[in-house]
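[agent] plan:
  1. take the single chain provided in the ticket
  2. run structure prediction with default settings
  3. attach structure tokens to the ticket
  4. add a short note for the reviewer (M.T.)
[agent] executing step 1
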Amino acid sequence: MISGNKTEDLKDAGEILYLPCSKLMDHPLHFDFYQQSHLEGLVTSIREADLLEPIIVCPHGDSYRILSGHYRIRAVRRLKWKQVLCRVVQCDDRLSAVIYCTSNLLTRGLSAMEEAYMISGLVSEESFTMTEIGKLWGHSKSWVSRRLSLLAHLDPKMRKEMEKGFLNPRVAQELARLPQGNDQERVLSIIKREHLGKDAAAELISWWLKAGENEREMVEKKSFSKAPEKIYGSDFLSKNVAKHLSDCIYLLTRLISILKEEKTIGWWPMNQYHSFKTTSIELDRVLKEQITAAGEG
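[agent] step 2 finished; step 3 output follows
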């Protein structure tokens, strides 16, 4: 097993040069889910301050395998960069897996499902033992076993959704609490329909595990806006609405930033903007009526 200090030394070594973005490929332990808010923030940062750290890669055939910097390479591709500064490290597949894992552990807060996916790859692709993986993560062999069990409880269809980047790994972790098969698929369809984040999905799954089949079918048929409070629960509704409002605030803040940078806004979709304003005014009116009625009650 490679020590942490040895891995850091290798990451700091190697030749630094510009490589074509088209020659950089994802590491096999990586899957295609990206937190869009973080990615967009990174795009803005690189646009304004350039790329502060090179992408760490290793040669792999006619291309290069990314060891650290998957988010950064996505960001520079969005900026239409043709080439990017890289640090090229010479290593075999097993060592590249160690560098990839340690880089992610140091730079990102991984979800339990992301860790499980990486650990599964280390076992199946590079023949790491659970003892070796435990030392790499700084945990026991039993901790590694528990992480692997998360994937075992996730339906194969859900796992494919996660691997393709269509399913947030933190939501997948919550889905693993449900029986494989129909339950996971049914709940995921509700999560997608209502655009639920991890916390709201966790609330829904906790409710689903306690609910009867008639209640479940009622929630599947009703849209979020029509579902009565007695089905979802006021706490669940409050958290879900708060999440949607936070998303709206983020998008509006981004729009304001874009507009401040533009000299002309001939492209602005006025019809949709008027509809947006009308809907906002109606929301405010209905909310004031509800608040007034609650005060009088």
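[agent] step 4 note for reviewer: The first strand starts at residue 15 and ends at 20.
[agent] ticket updated
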